Amino acid sequence: MPRSKSPPRVKGPYTERGGARFRIRICDATGHRDVYFSTLNEAQAGIRQATREVLQSGGKRHLGNVIDEHMQDKVQRGLCAAQNADIQKARLRDWLSDALEEDIGKITSKRAAAYYEQLVNTPTRKTKQPPTAATHRFYLNLAQTLFRWAVRKGYIRESPFAEIQPVGRPNRGKKQLRFEEAERFITAGLRLFDEKDDAMALAAVTALLLGCRASEVLFLHVRDLDCGGTRLWIAARDSEYTGKTGNAARNPEVPDVLRPRLIQRTVGQRPEDYLFGVGSTGKPRSRQVLHRAVRRVCIVAGVPIVCPHSLRGLWATAGVRSGALSHAVAAALGHGSFKVTAKHYVQPGTLDGTRTERLVEMLALKTPKPDRDPASLHAEQLLSSLPAATLAKLIELASRASVPSL
Q1: Which residues pair with 36 in a beta bridge?
Q2: Domain covering 179-320, topology
Q3: Domain locations in the chain?
Q4: Could you list the pLDDT tens digit for every one of the 406 residues in the chain?
């Protein structure tokens, strides 16, 4: 006779790591899964909630519960910041809203393809236009990651989203200000702060001059302004704010034009206070507030309207154009690799020009004399016409040739 299946149940809590965390095990007809908590009270509450869900579902795994579990697992394993996990969870729940109460195994490849097609063609509430290629590709990647994880957990045999191919070609990078426009932007932002005490205008200028993410600026504390205002500590991970990646931690030097104004923001403030203030809820101001501030400064400066993240891209472009080493620019932006910087932040053409100048200099083709050698000019023109990949290879070969043998 076939063995009868065990009734669904929840086990635990089990103490792990010397009491540093607690584990519960949820068992049903298809297997078991472990969920971890920081405290015993949280684990006991998790047991009660899991018991209710198991009894209500009869052992089924509702998609909504799987999404929650997946995001919790990503945070616990250090793969995603809690703030980003909440955003991703909301996106998936909104997109797949009509299937949240269904068993995850009921979602077929045909339904998954229909979900993606609907996403691609449905106008968004914000823009009244279908989402961009980058947006719907991001949603698709979230779904594919979720269902691959569900396969590894044994919840389903195969992912219904595995064979879906993304459509459209995403635009890379955002519209950036020109250097003269950026100068007017900085001047206007500082004037708004000096004359109208516009703290968010100063935050916008800070984002531009230091290449910060919006969240990095908004979550700055008074104590993060260090060494007499000459250094600014940008955190990667703490109990309140988690940077986008572990590479986000850095302490850039504060420009002279910015230093006295940031120090002014600290007057009468406690070390734990937020440098650019809080909203009505007592929490740091939202990204939308900074977005409106950037727009306000753009209008006053008479320059094209851009978003806060575009200011970060302009900083990267300026760093590369100035001849800064690629790894230094990436590190200053909090990126683990210059590939991310070059792909999403640096203006097209900047890298090619910089590579050409560097190669010409390394091959001793540049001359400080006013009258240029025709051979040197011809060499520069030839190098400028080469593809970026070829230039990069030549730089590598020239670097090796320039190192003296031991």
Answers
A1: 23
A2: hpI Integrase; Chain A (1.10.443)
A3: 1-59, 83-171, 179-320, 349-406
A4: 444 445 567 888 999 888 889 999 887 655 677 888 889 999 898 888 877 766 655 557 889 999 999 999 998 888 887 878 899 999 999 999 999 999 898 899 999 999 999 999 999 887 889 998 888 999 999 999 999 999 988 888 899 999 999 998 766 556 778 878 888 898 999 999 999 999 999 999 888 888 788 888 999 999 999 999 888 888 754 434 444 444 456 777 888 888 999 999 999 999 999 999 998 888 899 888 999 999 999 999 999 998 888 887 776 665 434 333 333 333 433 434 434 434 444 444 443 444 334 434 444 444 444 555 555 555 555 555 555 556 556 655 555 554 444 3
Sign of the torsion formed by the C-alpha atoms of 353, 358, 360 and 361: positive
pTM above 0.90, yes or no: no
Integer Cα distance of 75 and 38 in angstroms: 12
Which one-letter amino acid corresponds to residue 19? Answer: G
Residue whose C-alpha is closest to residue 8's, from 63, 68, 58: 58
